[in-house]
Amino acid sequence: MRRHVVLWIALAVTSVVLSAAAAFETRASRLQAIKTVGIVSAIGEEMSLTQAGLTALGNTGQSASISAWGLDEMIVQQATRLLSPRFRVQAVSYRRAAFAAIRDSAVAPVNLLRSDPFKELVRSDVTPQGLDAYIVITRARSKLGNGRNVEGVGLAEYRTLLADYGLIHALYEVRVIDGKSFDVIEKRAAAPLDNTGTLRLAGPSGPVDETFGGSASGERLRAAIADLITRSLPITLGDMHLTDSP
């Protein structure tokens, strides 16, 4: 009986490994077949302001418009530069607000069985149609401290009885959506750049600098957020095998 159980487990493990290998091979071949891409970015119109911790449990999140920062335009330009050596990148038109309105992250494990909400949006809202693939860059979520969600671009403060900790963050995820079938070929959330701080998020973030409080705080904050994106995007696209890894 024991031998049969061991054999069954071995066969099950082998099946899982073979299925994973086949899926990887299929994904790799589909990526290899891509020649033309369009880039959609919708993370940078709004900044969240979040407080959490022992002394801020009742506070609600706030937001502020940062559309003047032009973060999405910067992301499209950087992604175009990174992808151009391998793909022919074509400019596309889309309703940024429609993509930004989707808050649910399909990268999260709880959502893996759901239909990705961006598939139909790419089919209906992006022009021109008919490219081999569309690279869609949107907000991602992470939990802060006591479990409160933060997402996209923002400032987060976590308070304890003894100290306050502040973070800036630029949380985003990247999808490669097939331009014919609109299947999601690949998707990945940008990983942390540095996970050594006291307060950590599952994505690009950094400590709040005291210079953000000065008269030039808006420009300093914009530059710091842009730096998080500029440093993390090459890594994320490289990890997705869309570019040569940096």
Describe the structure.
By secondary structure, the protein is α/β, with parallel strands linked by helices. It has two domains: 1-32; 35-239, 3-Layer(aba) Sandwich (Rossmann fold). It is built from five helices and twelve strands. It has helices at residues 2-32, 71-83, 96-100, 118-125, 217-239; strands at 36-42, 46-53, 62-65, 88-89, 133-139, 141-144, 148-151, 153-159, 164-170, 172-178, 184-189, 205-207. The protein has a five-stranded mixed β-sheet, sandwiched between helices. Strands 3-2-8-9-12 form a five-stranded mixed β-sheet, with helices on one face. A two-stranded antiparallel ribbon has the order 6-7. The longest helix has 31 residues, at 2-32. The protein is elongated. The protein starts with a helix and ends in a 7-residue tail after the last helix. 32% of the residues are buried.
Looking at this protein, list some descriptive labels.
246 residues, Rossmann fold, 12 strands, 27% strand, elongated, signal
Give the domain tally.
2
Element-level helix/strand string: HEEEHEHHEEEEEEEEH
C-alpha end-to-end distance: 51 Å
SS summary, helix count: 5
Q: Give the amount of beta strand, in percent.
A: 25-35%
- The shape, in one word, is elongated
Briefly, what CATH class of the largest domain? Alpha Beta
Q: In order across it, which strands form the biggest sheet?
A: 4-1-5-10-11
The share of residues in helices is 25-40%
Rounded mean pLDDT score: 81
Report the structural category: alpha/beta
CATH topology of the largest domain: Rossmann fold
Could you give a short account of the major beta sheet? 5 strands, mixed
| Uncertain ranges | 10-24, 109-113
- Give the quaternary arrangement of the chains: single chain
Rg calc = 20 Å
Strand segment tally: 12
Write the CATH architecture name of the largest domain: 3-Layer(aba) Sandwich
